[in-house]
Specification:
extended; Nucleoside triphosphate pyrophosphohydrolase; EC 3.6.1.9
Length: 266
């Protein structure tokens, strides 16, 4: 396959470039890859797209979307070589799915608002995937999702059956009971029981987030960033006073932390 440089490239050019890289005499590294070896690349690129969105940086988003698109083309090329499907079939499949799941656009179904759109979407999706019970919908939540995200999706789907707390305060009461059970497990000293109860505490905390409503994954990410920001401030304050953190008592560290927290909110 002969490559020709252009002023501007398109998606079809990307597909051709990938075929060239994977082809005879192409790039040794690209030719060695399979679905499993580049699996993590797809995940990492998706998160970098999210980071660009959060940063509000259009140029960064454009670049990261390109990296993510490359992964789609890469996996599709591998599958085409294995005789499974091509990138055209991937595009055909998603087009058909969108048409089928938007009967209010491509058919004569009438909806009154976005809520009804989502209800129809879920109903059509269940039919497509052969999901006949509520448990089927829970099992279909991918196990590879981040645990907080997966937990919130599982809880949301279970709640559609009516198996749910009425409000955030009720969910919080459940969280408090799970914390009490964790305390009991810590007192007993059994590692397996402690880990089990810790999981229940986190799962219950996600339930509280869902009822606020808040996204548990985003809330924890924000708290992580807040902790880093305050720790950085605490370290800077200590450095200004000639204090080495590693040489301080826990009480002294807590005092420095409280000062950093106060400065953070001022």
């Amino acid at each position: 396959m002969e490559f020709q440089a252009k002023e501007k490239y398109s998606v079809s050019d990307l597909i051709s470039i990938m075929a060239l890289l994977r082809g005879e005499g192409g790039c040794p590294w690209d030719r060695e890859q399979d679905h499993l070896t580049i699996r993590k690349n797809l995940i990492e690129e998706a998160y970098e797209v999210v980071e660009a969105i959060d940063a509000g940086d259009p140029e960064m988003l454009r670049e990261e979307l390109g990296d993510l698109l490359l992964q789609v083309v890469f996996h599709s090329r591998i599958s085409e070589e294995e005789g499974d499907f091509s990138i055209e079939e991937v595009a055909d499949g998603i087009c058909r799915k969108l048409i089928h799941r938007h009967p209010h656009i491509f058919s004569d179904v009438v909806v009154k608002d976005s809520g009804e759109v989502l209800e129809n979407w879920d109903a059509i999706k269940k039919q497509e995937k052969g999901q006949k019970t509520a448990s089927d919908t829970l099992h279909s939540v991918p196990k590879v999702l981040p645990a907080l995200m997966r937990s919130q999706k599982v809880q949301k789907r279970a709640a559609k059956t009516g198996f749910d707390y009425p409000d955030a305060l009720s969910a919080l009461a459940d969280l408090e009971s799970e914390i009490a059970e964790l305390r009991e497990a810590l007192a007993s000293g059994g590692q397996e029981a402690q880990t089990d109860e810790l999981g229940d505490v986190i799962f219950s905390a996600v339930n509280v987030a869902r009822h606020l409503p808040a996204d548990a994954e985003e809330a924890l990410t924000a708290s992580c960033e807040k902790f880093i920001r305050r720790f950085d401030r605490m370290e800077s304050m200590a450095r200004e006073k000639g204090i080495v953190l590693e040489e301080q008592s826990l009480d002294r560290l807590n005092a420095l932390w409280d000062a950093a927290k106060r400065a953070d909110v001022e």
